[in-house]
């Protein structure tokens, strides 16, 4: 396979470990903290996890290793969507495992959790691992979204582990994947299998975050990748001076990605979903907010600008959420077949008009036809609207155009408005990891093996103090149950890791809030450029603006 000059150079990069992990496995000891409790619903979570609940948080320190020496056979899986740095988690895990005992074995189960069920794996060796160091993607073994949640699945996984003598499984994933890791750990403990489960916090969305997990891996690289592109778009806008660019960015429900990109690039507009919900903003109010910026800039002769739209924003608009719920009810069961059998959009529109409440129909009527059709055509296997597929960047530019037309008719606006649209998502998920993510991910993997070596089960690999240089990072572990609460999913109460939304009283949002009025009227664009791997530390090893603001002293 032909590889690029950058990939060759990145093979040579030596990831930086936290200080206490740099002196060899023999010089690492454990400091135990207090017993933990789940973030909410303590009694229910404790009842569901009687064998793994309430364990102590731990920190690794320099000192004599007191773990019992034994051969370790570890299985690793990549679960869920891709995130830059996943390969380095596996590399760190492999290096720690082999540094401890050359006889230790690492199996990579292919295609995500289904690889464990299907017993589809590869055994890693030096040559295999070395080809993936400091590279993006999950192609080393592939990923998947199969959930491990039934007794039958657990029994199969247990037999696969027994067959290969697996002593521990490392699950690299986001909130759902690590919820599954906790459930699997509980099963292994309840059945005395002797198999441990360790999780690693992955997601570009940034919503796997709490007082213990400062940052999920991949967020740094993905937001820097998107910010480079947004900066390029801003420079083009400032050069051509005739387009408004509406840029939707990935991030699921939370707006962490949008906020970080705004802090990096200072666009004219950035919507924050959590603020939309807090203020109960309507589609019309949001459109007016953006139109104000367009009109004010036009009055200064600037008929151009950039607006960042978070992927999940429409879910947070109260009237739109009600509309989605009504559409899901309208198309439930056999009614979906009746709707799909209608020949023309006019017939379907009449069907919709009869089925929605007056309030929801008023919301539906103001949407562009393309968005109206998306709401009814793009549905998941359960018949529900797939909100993430809604082209909200086109929705808002269309609503803004309508607002500006009204203002022009009223004589309060005389500018020009031409919109271009972008969606930044997959471009950032498999980029070459930044130095930060290369270091962080390698540390998470190395640290995961230390948790295995000391016999911990149901723990998340934890590396903290991330706003400081890597040698000051702190390694340790946290029981996954500490992050869990009970949520209603598909009509059932389920234990899940609590998602972190943007905190409106947090330092990152407060900084954005203090500056956005100026950004909205003036051209304050910042052009971050491409991720830098070589050069001054302040350029190459900088953390995200979010992390820096959250931990500013």
From TrEMBL:
Metabolic or biological pathway: Carbohydrate degradation; glycolysis; D-glyceraldehyde 3-phosphate and glycerone phosphate from D-glucose: step 3/4
SUPFAM superfamilies given in the database record: Phosphofructokinase
Binding site for substrate: 203-205, 242-243, 250-252, 311, 426-429
Residue ranges of domain Phosphofructokinase in the record: 74-315
Source organism superkingdom: Bacteria
Active-site residues from the entry: 205
Cofactor: Mg(2+)
Principal location listed in the UniProt entry: cytoplasm
Enzyme Commission number(s) from the entry: 2.7.1.90
Binding site for diphosphate: 81
Reactions accelerated catalytically: beta-D-fructose 6-phosphate + diphosphate = beta-D-fructose 1,6-bisphosphate + phosphate + H(+)
Keyword check for Signal: no
Residues of the site described as Important for catalytic activity: 202
An example molecular function term from Gene Ontology annotations: diphosphate-fructose-6-phosphate 1-phosphotransferase activity
Keyword annotations from UniProtKB, A to Z: Cytoplasm, Glycolysis, Kinase, Magnesium, Metal-binding, Transferase
Residue(s) at site: Important for catalytic activity and substrate specificity: 176
Assembly mode: Homodimer.
Classification via PANTHER family: PYROPHOSPHATE--FRUCTOSE 6-PHOSPHATE 1-PHOSPHOTRANSFERASE, PYROPHOSPHATE--FRUCTOSE 6-PHOSPHATE 1-PHOSPHOTRANSFERASE SUBUNIT BETA 2
Protein name: Pyrophosphate--fructose 6-phosphate 1-phosphotransferase
Encoding gene per record: pfp
